[in-house]
Amino acid sequence: MCDPAVSSFLTQTLCAHGGRLGLRELQENIGLSALQLQDTLSAAGPRRFLLVEGGQVVLAVTDARVCVRKECDGCERLHLCKQHLMSRCHLGPSSCKYSHDIMSAENKLVLKKHDLSGLCENELQVLLLQNDAFFLPDTCQLYNKKGSHCTQQSNCNKLHVCQHFLKGRCKFPRCIMSHNLLDDHALRVLETVGIDGKIASNFQAICDYKHMEFNREPKKVNSGLNHDFEFDTGRNFRRIKEVKTTLETVQCMLDVPPSKAVLLIQSSHTGPSSTGPAQSRDQLPAGAGDKDKGKKNSSSDEASKDNKKDNCDEICLFYVWKYCKNKDKCKSVHYHLPYKWEIHDGLNWKELCMMEEIEKAYCDPKNSSLPSKNINFQTMTCSSSLVRRLSTPSSVTKPTFLLTTQWIWYWKNNQNKWIEYGEQEEGNSMTSPSSAIIENLYQADPCAIVPFQAGQHQYELNFKEMIQTNIHFKTRRQVCRRPKFVSSEDVQKIKTGSQRDSSIPNQTCPSHWDASALPDFGYKAVVISNTTSEYNEIKQLFHQTMKNYSILKIQRIQNPSLWKVFQWQKEKMKRENGGKEVQEKRLFHGADVISMDTICSQNFDWRICGSNGTNYGKGIYFARDACYSHTYCQATLQGHSMFVARVLVGDYVKGNATFVRPPMKCAAKLWLYDSCVDDEFNPAVFVVFEKHQIYPEYIIEYKE
């Protein structure tokens, strides 16, 4: 079973692009690795995401349907005006006898049941049009009852298609009726009701799959044999072969190991598939075909060729995982570990032996050298020869990828002991920024001088000199940056998938989360110790405007699926912004106690949870200052509760009460602003219209 939040996000992404996307395009839009996407699609199954055209294209599928009755006392279907959803109702919501409100109480329950709560009206329209036969024109009864013969022939204004096929219930693999919505007559009839060729093609592919499943013989499924079906397209029969229910095709397209079955359907009306596009540089590879066996456990001849690129010090994530399609053309070094130590012989860089021993020594900050190998880590020399360390990219630059390098930052105390940043020194309650925060700043500018506060003291961290200075006392301390040690055995465990059993891998969660409280679905609330830097950071933010209130406790919300979707959205916005980092803020939100569990499970949604005001648009409101959100917090006998959320505010503009989404930023490219504010120059109130831009990170419980 696929996580509902993940399924909803994928469906929303597909429907925002017309109901279908190429596999590579989908990966690029959501920032998933090939293996993660394959696991997600497999877990959801073809009733949610259907792979067609040889596995190159993903279609959004749903069982949600609109009620066809003129009067209904209540059923499990959506109750909506058909013409309104097709943008053809001229009566308006006040005059029309059918509902125009997709978020009515009964419709919200139906959408929630089908994991579609996050879809807007336009996205729901796309999804229903390509799945629900109710939106199609009427089928010709004469054609269906007279053995595919209609006296009006091509002049008929109704569909000459098998009515049972459109509902997925045609019993005849060799039906004499047409199963083709894409012939000239059918397309002409569809266009009269506003259904274009793209939607028709999507509907056709979904119907083909359902027809094949309906007529599948169990013994043939179990045997894994191919068998033929014939689909009549008017008077001419066409024969197609069903694709075997294996992962051979998806393995070819995604380069993933055949761990879970995904059913691939080749539409009978779209022709054979072509080979996939070149491997994306933005995805993490996840396997290789049989022809590449043997490459993953040795440096190989190809790796030796790549090592001649003396100016390159980055190891290819694709190759270290299993296989890089770029081979000799790859700009990065090919090696089977995420690190590599080399020595310069005067002409070329050569691989050092005892690689793991050197790496383990280097990862320990107390080691400035490895005497047994005569290696000096300070000068990066071995005797009189130069030494260098190659590695995969830093984990903070590619947070959703595996086998990146996690860098740990340390400072040296008065006892010459190295203390990791973010960890408390023994006998000292004062904490500092975490390694992840410092590494992010270092990646932004390796020569920067970064000011920070720990307790009551102000410091400066000089990356170039690797020195920490107390601004008041001028005390200087050494700083060290070393990678977290990963053995060759650890690498193999990751590559063989023992650490990726869940469709929401632990690797995607922040390192400071409690690993024992990571549910497959939903969330866990973890109380934070008041001695940690994490607690003090949130406390300080809260007390900037709430000094007369005492914090009872702070809970961290650990919802792996919401966090994963939040990271996908962040990567998506970054790509849409030309690679520029997205502006992210910690903001406050006041909510009633009843809504808090829903928000922690399913995220904020103004249509479900309600919104605090509409002065700047109909979205979810957040405040820079806790005192502002306090006015919206519901008081209880114990006190008050308030959310602290991570919000991708991005590029913002002043809002307006009429906005239901941000206004255009660039009309030529159809770019929208990311959020709205009360004041562009000094924003205190932020309005977000897309819930995937939010992660509910903490709940503060407090009293006066």
TrEMBL record:
The keyword Nucleus applies. It is found in: Cytoplasm; Nucleus. Residues 80-103, 161-182 form the C3H1-type domain. GO terms for molecular function: NAD+ poly-ADP-ribosyltransferase activity; NAD+-protein mono-ADP-ribosyltransferase activity; RNA binding; zinc ion binding. GO terms for cellular component: cytoplasm; nucleus. One of its GO terms (biological process) is response to virus. Residues 267-308 are annotated as: Disordered. Keywords: Cytoplasm, Metal-binding, Nucleus, Phosphoprotein, Repeat, Zinc, Zinc-finger. Its main location: cytoplasm. A zinc finger (C3H1-type) spans 80-103, 161-182. Pfam families: HTH_53, PARP, WWE, WWE_4, zf-CCCH_PARP12. It comes from the Eukaryota. Belongs to the ARTD/PARP family. This is PAR12 polymerase. It comes from Rhodinocichla rosea.
